[in-house]
Structure prediction request, 350 residues.
Amino acid sequence: MKTNHEIKLGVSLYSYQDTYYFHKQDLEGCLAAAAGAGAEGVEVFPEAMMPEWPYISDAFVDKWNGWMERYDLVPVCVDHFSDRRMWKNRNLSDDELVERGIWYIKTAAKLGCQSIRLLHEEHIGRNTIKRDYLLTDVKIAERLLPVAAEHNIMMALECHAPTSIDDPVHQIYMETAERLGLPFVGLQVDFSSYEYCMSTADVGMFTRQGAHAEILNIVREKQREAYFADRDFEYAEIKEQIEKIGLNDVDKNALRRVPGHKRPHSLLKLKELASQVVYVHGKFYDLDADGQVDNIDYPRVFKALQDGGYKGYICSEFEGNRRMNDAGWVDEIEYVRKHHILMRKCLGYD
Prediction:
């Protein structure tokens, strides 16, 4: 559905991962679903949905272009994964990781995309997870920059919770691109940075695993109260109440991030940096009875992007599927359709 809007809406096909995996729809069916939601653009996952990956044939490109024409879609982004641990017995070397990065860039160019989502070392902050390997780092990104320039493909740095686009850890990439005179790295907003409370999708998932629903809902409601009162959430205020109920191991796992969680990242900073953003993931896990995302203030996030002058795509990224599918089939197509209704309302397009 082509429009003249400065902010355009799309779908990351990641949103349809179970629909594809369980053969409810093939790749064309997922594209048709995105178009049916009212999407203008799509983000694609070549490893998951393109059997020819990484050697995309001209015949497949012809078919792809036909689908784009048939469903009136624009290819926006190819999703890049680091894959350093793709083998059980060893890590990939930097040279091998550079080679894979080149595959993503060339694939994006073949498919007519504008960018690759770059899964980089700092996308969820530094030292947040203990591991014995690194993802794509700035040294590898520097080697990829001339290739990105050759093919006119932007490398979008996904800035994901617990970090955000104003976190200094991402700036070394931008500085490297500026130093080389190759402006093919940009910031990608992920709405996870603006979550203000635990999602009902997580509450349900952990409860089914054995957590106390009472504990999780106390935390969720206190987080909501703090957000709408424009103050920090303080876990200490409810710690005694929760400990009286008694925490089991599943409760502790569910709450592992809660004590350090204060409030979402700054929407003022999002507004300030919006004009430097090259791509956006409209993350969501669940929708409430009013069609609102239940743990992210979508109207305010969208207003910050609009007021800051963002021009580009916001693609639905539904991640409630793997949080709810243990309880039964999750209709990803319907969730994304409702999500697009919400996004259009936030932007004033309906």
The domain at 7-195+264-347 is CATH 3.20.20.150 (TIM Barrel).
